[in-house]
Amino acid sequence: MSRRTQILATAADLFAARGFHGVSVADLGAACGISGPAIYKHFVAKEAILAEMLVSISEELLAEGERRVAGAADPRAAVAALVDWHVDFALRQRSLIVVQDRDWESLPDDAREKVRDLQRRYVDLWADQLRGLDPTLTRDRSRAMAHVAFGLINSTPHSGLLPDEEMRSVLTQMAGAALRLNPPREA
After folding, report:
1. What is the pTM of this model?
2. pLDDT, averaged in runs of 10, over the chain (187 residues)
3. Residue ranges making up the domain that contains 129
4. Burial, 59: exposed, middle or buried (Cβ in 10 Å; 0-12, 13-18, 19+)?
5. Residue spans of alpha helices (H) in the chain
6. How many domains does the chain have?
7. Within a domain: residue 111?
8. Is residue 29 part of a domain?
9. CATH at 132
């Protein structure tokens, strides 16, 4: 792991635990085994760490989402692949979910705008597949459904009371039901 990657991963955990403003550069350096000022060899400011952290994960979500949709046979398979991908992300990146939620306002304006754009594109990726699954859905309704699924899946840092594999099953099943992936059972 490169020093830059180590700094980003450590910062995500520290920011999640104590908040962006609750972590000093000295704290971050100490947690990485370097001096605080050595952080500046890798990032121009603490805000740059937060920006790279949230921009890069937004880029990763979109790129992998696009890859999974491209590899899917139909909209149902695409939505299932998106759910699987987002559940995997939520289980692996709990700290980033907390940081995104809590420290959004600390992002520099240009990074905030980039993250918003990437997130809109990710939502639209989901919405397009949901509309392919059910052509009667409006654009707004399909976007709302995507956001609801994200809320459910992104609750993992707060609701992850089960071992990861069991939590994966619960999240996948519940998100699939919310998105109507599974046809209703006959009574």
Report:
1. 0.92
2. 94 97 96 94 96 97 98 97 97 96 96 98 98 96 97 88 92 93 59
3. 48-178
4. middle
5. 3-18, 25-32, 46-70, 75-92, 94-103, 109-133, 139-153, 156-159, 164-178
6. 1
7. yes
8. no
9. 1.10.357.10
